[in-house]
Amino acid sequence: MVTRDEVRKIVTLLMKRPITEDIAIEVKSYEGYEHLEITDGEWVLNDVEDEMTTGEEHGWIETLILNAITNYVLKTRAGRVYPGDVTFVLDGEPGHLRVTREPDVSFVAKENVTPTRKFVFRAPDLAIEIVSPSQDLDEMRARLHQYLDYGTRQAWLVIPEIRQIEVYALDGFVAIYSVGQTVPGGDLLPGFTLDLAFVFEQ
Length: 202
Hints:
Elements: H1 4-15, H2 21-28, E1 36-39, E2 42-45, H3 56-76, E3 79-82, E4 88-93, E5 96-101, E6 105-109, E7 126-130, H4 137-149, E8 154-159, E9 164-169, E10 174-178, E11 182-184, E12 193-195, H5 196-199
Parallel strand pairs: 7-8
Antiparallel strand pairs: 1-2, 3-6, 4-5, 6-7, 8-9, 9-10, 11-12
């Protein structure tokens, strides 16, 4: 539970501009503020990760995908894979954050990994978002295109309601996979495949 004094401190932090890495880390350390993101240098609520919009199904699918990619990465030493609480700074520097995002699952290729205890100042090579029941598909697709605009090589949209995964590539090509098919890792994750029957437990 956030105390009254903490609320005052949070409000003060939320008002500060520019938003720096240290300010963002402190704000996101408070309960209820973990999922704030930054767009155009201003705070916004990341509804994709909002605890009120994500449920058991979302969490389990996230775990399955995270574990599948992690197993591949550990065997191949291809890079690092991250859960949904890692902040990527798509635009900005430590003293001025302009755009931040927290994909549900993300991967950074070995040559692009910079170990840090704070934020990652680059776009992930692979960004995966899982659609929650309250999310608008068009808004989610726009979110994936934003990742690509900032240098993400592949972006996946997982849609549990219709048991599909849409894969977006830098060249604008979109591939759609359904249960009975597997999503290939392509050049980004050579030899990796994700079975949709496994993801959606069919």
